[in-house]
Amino acid sequence: MEKKRVYTFGNGQAEGKADMRNLLGGKGANLAEMNLIGVPVPPGFTITTEVCNEYFEKGKEAVVALLKDDVEKSIKGVEALMKSKFGDVENPLLVSVRSGARASMPGMMDTILNLGLNDEVVEGLARKTNNPRFAWDSYRRFVQMYGDVVLGMKPVNKEDIDPFEAIIEEVKKAKGVRLDNELDVDDLKTLVVRFKEAVKKQTGQEFPSCAYEQLWGAICAVFDSWMNERAILYRKMEGIPAEWGTAVNVQAMVFGNMGETSATGVCFSRDAATGEDLFNGEYLINAQGEDVVAGIRTPQQITKIGSQRWAELQGISEAERVAKYPSMEEAMPEIYKELDELQTKLENHYHDMQDMEFTVQEGKLWFLQTRNGKRTGAAMVRIAMEMLHQGMIDEKTALMRCEPNKLDELLHPVFDKEELGRARVLTRGLPASPGAACGRIVFFAEDAAEWHTNGHRVVLVRIETSPEDLAGMQAAEGILTARGGMTSHAAVVARGMGKCCVSGAGAINVDYKTRTVEIDGVVLKEGDYISINGTNGYVYAGEIPTQPAKLSGNFAELMELCDKYARLKVRTNADTPRNAQDARGFGAVGIGLCRTEHMFFDDEKIVAMREMILAKDVEGRKKALDKLLPYQKADFKEIFKTMDGLPVNVRLLDPPLHEFVPHDLKGQEEMAQAMGVTVDYIRQRVESLCEHNPMLGHRGCRLGNTYPEITEMQTRAILGAACELKKEGYDPHPEIMVPLIGILYEFEAQEKVIRETAAKLFKEEGVEIPFKVGTMIEVPRAALTADRIASHAEYFSFGTNDLTQMTFGYSRDDIASFLPVYLEKKILKVDPFQVLDQNGVGQLIEMAVAKGRSVRPELKCGICGEHGGEPMSVKFCHKVGLDYVSCSPFRVPIARLAAAQAVIEESL
Ligand code: ADP
Ligand code: MG
Ligand code: MG
């Protein structure tokens, strides 16, 4: 059988359904599904995503020939249902041509509305509807959209004005009006004539008048748009493969611009910003398509409560609100009721929050789209947990609904309360996407990206945003716009990115030319600091410090649910009591890596440390170590106290020593003075410490094995702190970890020092602390000989940063010189220092665990590299049977969720 390329839908029937989104795209699959479940949808058909690939393989002509019969037949079907005819003058059928990929790509592809109009048909439409204004408004929109999208007249450089918009401005100016809807029929006719002249002038061709010619042009343009720059950029950001392709939906037009009983809108079954279970949305009377999202007219709220909240934010009185900005619930109560019923039906059907688009044509409601709505991290958690409570989904579904990396947003800092009290409020806009953001003002997306690259935090301030601004929005801490509602481009995209956004701040006057923004008399320039709160819409002058977020409410509950399913435990990498405290708050059940070297970078401590390193002999080293001991002990004591009752894995000194010594003359003079030696001596010692390949040099256990007195001191500090705490009634669980082992004997020698020191210390102190001695597995040879090493080591911790470095032979410090090219050329899919390389490095881990447990079945294994907080890597760790992962404090909740998902995915 010939491959099926076109799937029809309409009048309660459809050839496709919801689970065919790979073939029909999300939009097409859901248009079909809505038909099947009795939601009113204008009839139409979907050309499959496979055809998109054929289009790029075989070219335009070939694909049009392949599609011709099916498309013409499907149009006939729509004609029958709509009782009108495509291209007919007296009774014309108009259609929209819409793109729709597998994953929703908001604002990425261009839709063409009102297709099928020409100079004769428009007259027929005016007669048929008895509404010339509507007919001509539709026509001028069509010529404009078709010109922009299909004929490529939309300026590439967004600084340039759209040629059609320029004409509209001229006509409005000549007439002395401000708004589009103040133009009358004759003005609209003038617009069409001038638009077509502009088309002729710019493309050298007449505007196509044949309906089918228009249709083929539009279908091909949708396919072409799959390869446009912003689509490619979006796919790159979201990791969507180009092979997925886009489907094309052709659908009978329904008109929201037929007068006061017509409208168009966008709505959500729950709040996409906060997750609150509250139907909400925006609509515009007598408007069409993208008017709501385009931010040209300020849309009104759908529900009364939404409208009241909106008015409050805008400082509008209830009387004024009711008179000027009534909600749909108040203005069109019957339609509202139907809309509310259908949105509930859709949410119940899909068991997820729906993002819907609809149009009302002369009192009749039509749905044009539904999809699972994009949401912020906070909304993601709240919706999952509330749907669980409402019995709509089960526990496993709730856990799988949450995307681990998106939890990051909930851990983002909030403005410091006290500082906030002192801050100056400039204005208030709409709370479009929650969070706190603070940065320097930039006005253009390119600048945002560039400033960000140069290390600045920026807030992108614009009148409105468009799809061209994606990269800049991504680079910014937050986005502030003057125009547009909660469903404007800026708001939708920011929520998708989890980026703070305040939209529709009407009081701000942006001047792109002078690069300034005036807010209530205050003028801010490019580069000035501004702070915005996307949770409540407030905009502040200057820089406001932030503080970390806390686990509570739904989020805390979700985390408990994770623990119910997860087998893998989550520890944290923490070197300070502060970090340890944060991590414990996020549910870490121990420290998986406590580095000791950071503790030395303190004014006094660094001098003693340098003395130790630069000492002539053992004697001198011991003297310096004696000075360091009390410092180290005090540091450990605080950390053990914070982690009372939980294991703390302390790594012995690891980095190359030259990292600690002064390389400048002034520093060397100071050391000479402190140690009573000549500057020359210091300089020579410093030079002798320099290595060609420090990462492979004198570091890790090689330090402890050449200078055992360091290990001795550190053991005394670690266990001494534990002894003191025990006497004070605490319950410390120290673990001592020897880094960079490659040979069993390296470990044995260090273990001997540790155990002997411990025995001596316990005798002196009169207490005994149970402790473990383990090792890092970070040198490939250690993984290869893991069974031998496990005969002595009580636990393994995979140091996947070094293990990745040594397995690939990529220097962590030098990878920037080639990694971007490798990623670009797809030699590497991802940065192996961020996402664990399961095939290579992963194999070493799997093998080492098996070998180690073959001689010591109870061997505890964990991971402490950066990978411990990366969801895919966490899932891998679960699979190979590690006991725990350890990650930075702010990634602990992410790892906990990934650990739970790993268990659920096993049973899928
Ligand atoms: P996007 O993917 O950018 O949301 P859509 O294809 O959904 O683009 O089209 C944008 C808007 O155009 C829709 O929300 C709807 O308002 C309008 N639209 C599309 N098709 C039709 C149609 N057949 N009748 C009326 N309006 C339509
Ligand atoms: Mg679009
Ligand atoms: Mg849409």
Automatic annotation (TrEMBL):
Q: Outline the extent of the PEP-utilising enzyme C-terminal domain.
A: 552-902
User: In which residues is Mg(2+) bound?
Assistant: 778, 802
Binding of substrate, residues:
595, 651, 778, 799-802
Enzyme class, first EC level, given as a word: transferase
The record's active-site residues are 489 (tele-phosphohistidine intermediate), 864 (proton donor)
- This protein's source sits in the domain of life called Bacteria
Please report the stretch or stretches of sequence annotated as the PEP-utilising enzyme mobile domain.
457-537
Q: Where is the Pyruvate phosphate dikinase AMP/ATP-binding domain?
A: 22-390
Q: What is its EC number?
A: 2.7.9.1
Instruction: Recite the UniProt keywords alphabetically.
Output: ATP-binding, Kinase, Magnesium, Metal-binding, Nucleotide-binding, Pyruvate, Transferase
Q: Which reaction does it catalyse?
A: pyruvate + phosphate + ATP = phosphoenolpyruvate + AMP + diphosphate + H(+)
Necessary cofactors: Mg(2+)
PANTHER family, alphabetized:
PHOSPHOENOLPYRUVATE DIKINASE-RELATED, PYRUVATE, PHOSPHATE DIKINASE 1, CHLOROPLASTIC
Report the protein's function.
Catalyzes the reversible phosphorylation of pyruvate and phosphate.
Q: What's this protein's name?
A: Pyruvate, phosphate dikinase
